[in-house]
Design a protein that fits this description.
9 strands, single chain, binds ligand HQG, 6 helices, alpha+beta, Arc Repressor Mutant, subunit A, 19% strand, 187 residues, ADP-ribosylation fold
Length: 187
């Protein structure tokens, strides 16, 4: 069951964040697609999905990756897009420190250029170091960076908080982070 939900969640992330056109969907400018169109399109592409299953996947998702519109007729990913959409988030005051999980192999470039959004809209920051380490582990040997979000904000950098609790900002210059935790092979 959980495995089936994970597979659907991964597929929905792929579609709603990155490649809606692969199944013929065209999200609006805020990233929403009609729930009935999504269900039809997914089924037309050889995967089973009905409203009941979709609601279970959205409600039970470990990171609350997706949200229904208040009327329940539309759905979108809460963050993480590479397609050009506007989530419509209001600027928010960040906590004094945030964390970013990455991998050792990126550190040379990160130390030189700072944290950059890559293919996504924003740099993603976590409120806690445990989540950040999990994010970093996806890419290899993890490194957790401590980001001086309070000072960035004081200096005029804008932050947003996604509906699922991920902090977003345009970039993080090298002067604003330090290494919080770096894995080694020794233990
Ligand atoms: C790194 C997951 C070289 C950056 C997570 C990261 C997150 C640089 C990688 C969400 C760099 C991009 C996003 C630079 C940053 N040079 N590498 N200048 N600046 N990087 O996947 O933050 O499970 O696009 O450190 O929980 O890992 O999908 O971003 O390692 O919230 O819902 O380039 O994805 O959520 O990788 O993850 P990503 P991310 P989901």
């Amino acid at each position: 069951m959980q495995n089936q939900h994970n597979k659907i969640s991964k597929f929905l992330s792929y579609i709603l964040r990155h490649h809606p056109q692969d199944i013929g969907l065209h999200p609006d400018e805020q990233g929403w697609v009609a729930v009935d169109e999504l269900i039809q399109a997914v089924n037309a592409h050889g995967k089973h999905l009905d409203l009941d299953l979709l609601q279970q996947v959205v409600a039970g998702n470990d990171k609350q990756r997706f949200a229904f519109s208040p009327d329940g007729l539309r759905i979108r990913a809460n963050q993480g897009h590479s397609i050009r959409i506007e989530l419509g988030l209001e600027p928010a005051v960040p906590p004094p420190y945030l964390y970013h999980g990455t991998a050792t192999r990126f550190m040379q470039s990160i130390n030189k250029h700072g944290l950059t959004p890559g293919s996504r809209h924003h740099v993603h920051l976590s409120a806690d170091h445990i989540t950040a380490k999990q994010v970093g582990t996806r890419h290899g040997m993890p490194v957790v960076l401590l980001v001086d979000a309070g000072r960035m904000h004081q200096d005029g950098n804008v932050f947003y908080l996604s509906a699922n609790g991920v902090w977003l900002t345009d970039k993080v210059a090298p002067t604003y982070f330090s290494i919080y935790d770096q894995s080694t092979n020794h233990g």
